[in-house]
Amino acid sequence: MLADALLRSAGGATALLRVTGTNADTNMSELGLVATTFAEVAISPVLMRKLRPSWKEGDESKWELLMSATSIEQQANSLDLPSAQALFAMTLAVTMAGQDYLIESIAANEAFGQVYLYRLLLREARQQSL
Amino acid sequence: MQNAKDSFYVALRTRLATINPERTILLRGTLRPGILVEEAEAPFSQFPNDVFVLRWPGTAVDTDLASTMVAEQCEVIYQTCGTQSFGGLDRGRALSEMDEELLAMLQPFYTQKLNYTATPPAAMMTHVFWDDPIFAPVVTQRDRLSRSVMVLVYSYEEQGE
C-alpha cells in the first residue's frame, strides 16, 4: 500500500499488459497461421523511467517499469491465475501511452516476505506492419 | 518454402509427442509438446529451458533441376539447467537425453509435404527430407548447458508454391 502511494505521488500512470488468450493446440496456431486473441489488462499505479543510455546503432531504448504488486495481484486473481509470474508469462507486450514495449526481465522487491513492487526491464518494440 | 518448414516442424512435434510425452511447454495458455518455432512465437528475451527451439537462418536454391530444389538450414537450439530434485547436478544427463530425443525425432529423415494453410492440411506431391544433424559443441554458461544442432532440410518447389 505504501508502495502504491509512492508510485501515485510520483505521477503514477496506467500500463496495459497485452495478454494472449488461450488458443486451441492446433497446427495453425503453432505455425503463426492464425492470429492469437489478445486482451488488455490495466495495471495502476505504475511508474516508468528511462535507463542510463548505453545506446548502440540499431538498438532500442531500454526502460524500467515499476508496477504496483497489489494491482498485479488483483488482476492475476480476476483472471484466475495462480501467480503474478503466470500473468507475466502470458504477457506479450506492455503498452504505455500508445507505445509497445517488450519485456526483457522481471524482478520483484520484497519486504517482510511480501512482494510490494515488480520491476520490469522493457525494450521498445519495433513498428509492426498493419 | 514455407510448406516445407511447416511440414518439418509438425513432423518433429508429432514424433516428440510419441518419444517423450512428458516434454511439454505451457505457451499462450496451452500445454503442448516441448518444441516451438521461434519466428512463430512472441520474442524471447531468453529461450525456455528443456524445450527445442527451431530457427531458420539460411536458404539455398538449385534451379538447374527439373523442379527447383530448396535447401533450408534449420538450427535446433536447446538448453537445460537440470532438475530441481538433483540440484541441477543432472544437467549433463538432461542434455544427453535431449540429444537422443532430437536424433530420434529426426528419424526417418523424411516426411510428407503438407500445405497447412488448408483445413484440413492438404498433402502435396513430394516429400521433405533432410541430412544428418550436425551437433555443435556444448556451451556452458554457469549452471546452464546449451547446444545448437544444424539440419539441412530439402524440398522441391511444387506448382502454386
Report mean pLDDT of chain B, rounded to a whole number: 94
Rg of chain A:
16 Å
Q: How many structural domains are formed by the residues of chain B? A: 1
The helix-strand sequence of chain A is: HEHEEHHEEE
The chain-level mean pLDDT of chain A equals: 84
CATH class of chain B: Alpha Beta
Strand order of the largest sheet of chain A: 1-2-3-6-5-4
Gross morphology of chain B: globular
Please give the share of residues in helix of chain B: 10-25%
Pair with the biggest interface: A-B, 22 and 21 residues
Major beta sheet summary of chain A = 6 strands, antiparallel, barrel
Radius of gyration computed on alpha carbons of chain B: 17 Å
Helix content of chain A: 10-25%
Low-confidence stretches of chain B: none
Span between N and C termini of chain B?
8 Å
**SSE topology string of chain B:** HEEEEEHEEEEE
SS content category of chain B:
alpha+beta
Q: How far do the termini of chain A sit from each other?
A: 40 Å
CATH architecture grouping of chain B: 2-Layer Sandwich
Shape descriptor of chain A reads globular
* Unreliably modeled segments of chain A: none
Describe the structure using short key phrases:
heterodimer; A: 130 residues; alpha+beta; 6-stranded antiparallel barrel; globular; B: 161 residues; STM4215-like; 8-stranded mixed beta sheet; two-stranded antiparallel ribbon; 2 helices
